[in-house]
Amino acid sequence: MSESETQSNQSRNQQDLPVVLIHRLSIFNFSFSTRLQTHFTLVDPLLHSPEPDSIHSFLSRHATSVSALLCVGPSPITSQTLSLLPSLQIVVGTSAGIDHVDLIECRRRGIIVTNAGHAFSEDVADYALALLIDVLRRVSASDRFGRSGMWPKYGTYPVGSKLGGKRVGIVGLGSIGSEVAKRLVAFGCSIAYTSRKKNPAISYPFYANVCDLATNSDVLIVCCALTDETRHMINKDVMTALGKEGVIINVGRGSLIDEKELVQFLVQGELGGAGLDVFEKEPDVPKELFTLDNVVLSPHLAVLTPESFAALQEVILGNLMAFFTNKPLLSQVQLE
Amino acid sequence: MENHNHEAKANQNYLCNSLPEVLVLEPPPVFKFHGDQLSKRFHFLKAWESPLPLHQYLTIHSQSVQALLSSGRNPITSEIIQLLPSLGIIVTPSAGLNHIDLQECRRRQISIVTAGTLYSEDVADLAVGLLIDVFKKISTADRYVRHGLWASQPDYQFPLGSKLGGKQVGIVGLGSIGLNVAKRLEAFGCNILYNSRQKRPSIPYPYYSDVCDLAALCDVLIICCGLTDETRHMINKEVLLAMGKEGVIINVGRGPIIDEKEMVGCLVQGEIAGAGLDVFENEPCVPKELVQLDNVVLSPHKAVHSEETLMALCDLVVGNFEAFFSKKPLLTPLVDY
Fold it and tell me: For the whole model, what pTM was predicted?
């Protein structure tokens, strides 16, 4: 435990610990309650005894004075839920994306929202690279080939494509996008990007329009947040601009891509390949993709390493402690 | 009509006969992908297509052959070389030389051309790809999704992956490939250590002359060196156990550098955490125990197989043979072998 943690512990007893409401769908486990319980009183409707009739009735009875909410995983926070929490001042998220939170309502109420900050960025960037190398060099497809016993019969496996020299367009040059770029440079790729705004500190070529980026890229890596503006931003026009040899990697959110169009493009050979960690309706993955060898499919795993969870705990703890002691937050998201 | 066909065939034969002759015992992959292009420049004597045993084929057909295109893997023994009295050049589309009897070549002063560093980036890319795959279970996850298990088992917690940043990576063989691997993994935040025949004074990474010492300090070992008498089974049981139960091994060198039987045993018994393998002791055979394991990624010796590199290789083969036949300096000769 850090010094400030020990000090804040000594100055409180159990009854005085600030209250944090835990908000989660039952499928999401909450694995770091022990650490948080030394600093906060955690109220989790799903663990309450007696079991509440409904979350809503629980909240209206017990949570009217709650100022802080910890949202576990992509558990939706609707305006209805928010209306039952009149004293709420902060929503602490446990993911990089916060598209599951009603941000319009939060902005209206002046509720602060924090996300996972940089906790996941390196792991997601590593994953994006893994998917790209896999698609271009057919790693998983040839692993299947090796396992199937076909190597002795059919000799060598179809040829892949070199990474070096590829023009990679990064969609969203935030924390994750920057880490992706750093890695790609070591493989000899050239980088260009699109973002909400051009970043004057970045020397990579900037395209205001994702279609122009696609026209000038061999690969698109989608790393941005899902908002109303970015929903289905990778659409038919963008995929056409990317071209028949083009590769799309998505480690953002499924709905950033028009999935129905993507499947058509891939099935008809209008796109070179795709590496996807996210989908529009997880855990449902379009079955047409199952038989394609130029596609790598992943069940939304990019962040799942012990190291990133440890980093996430620090960010969550840090944000909650900062909130309750009026100090600057670690990873506040600007709500536009 | 018949006359026309006969003439066309005669023309073709004439053209073939006027092209320089190159002997091929077994076709290299570049032959498969660029054979037509190569056949426009050279007349290939295709030993593998003949029903004759090799010894006889060579005695009958290849007395005047000056040039040989190796498959990159099939052995070019002293016996074969002795059956080719006019041999002046061997072009091998590989970085490795373990399949060629170098002593005999030296004795006969035969020029050798390799792929040099043409492959280094592609091999390094694949080594990193295999490592991240093992660490983050990419291929396992892909299988899981393709079998419909993600949707049908919503309560199943997929095993956690492992972060690359901060890991200690030991590179065995810090040549062109090894250096390219190091450059890439540094961008992921890995710490690089190495073992090589000799310490390289200009390289800042920590050096370990004993590969077992290196293994004991590392989370990952990446095998990038050539196969020689010294390196055969260099990665033995002792080295594998020194890696520890969380250790991961990646091999993009040659299968026999690792004692494959021991490695399979260690993987099956959980003495090491995983492996990414592009090469095997008895290709194209893959030990069947590995096929059952989820912590292993198998690649059928294709580290160099990208379209771009194969095209560059084709140019290299053509360029070197043309230089040889026109008595000009070779483009990428092996020096001091």
Answer: 0.89
